[in-house]
Predict the structure.
Amino acid sequence: MKIIRCKNYEEMSREAAKIVEAVVALKNDAVLGFATGSTPEGLYANLAADCKAGKADFSKTITVNLDEYCGLAADHPQSYRYFMNDKLFNHINIDMNNTHLPNGKAADLPAEAARYEKEVAALGYADLQVLGVGHNGHIGFNEPDSFLVQDTHVTDLTEDTIDANSRFFESANEVPKQALTMGIGTIMHAKKIILLASGANKRDAIATLFNGKVDPMSPVTVLNLHHDVTLLCDDEAWPL
Ligand code: F6R
């Protein structure tokens, strides 16, 4: 694993943007795998600013997102589709038809999971996957469990995750209890992965990664098996 230790969130976001832009510069129709949550917001702000300044071109870029809440429509302010449009897609020169997320409002959610897995596979999986990490070690919404799921699937969110994500909702009751998420196999198909970690509450998760063991109770540890992972970690998240 390559490690880029950063002073703070701003530096981490800038370094991440450089990597994303380098991938797109080399391959303008690259498939970028994106995450939501607080961690990549700075990255997306950098991409938007660089695109506006003419330093990055996303006109041919294709995107696939890790996950989406079940039950939230695309226009719900807490849906991940809304987040991606609001934080990134509306501010760059991307063709919206090339942006893909699972549909959390699908009538048949397992069928939607299977459809999304096929869609991502047909695109050849991500050239670059951006990941954040939950303080419990989850990636996407692959939660700690006694086993890891390979493909895109419907998952129950843990109480921990519902608690952590309730900061975006009026109350914890409003946080959806299920999500559609890429599986560990879908993520591991990415040709290159960058993992972003910022803040003291990510220190334990990064410590489990540094243990070198693959433990389904901390799904991020599976990244120890991938051949091209770069961890961008700020001082507060640094566990050593
Ligand atoms: C969301 C996702 C999650 C987040 C994780 C960290 O698409 O994939 O795994 O990356 O929950 O969230 P933040 O960045 O809000 O701490």
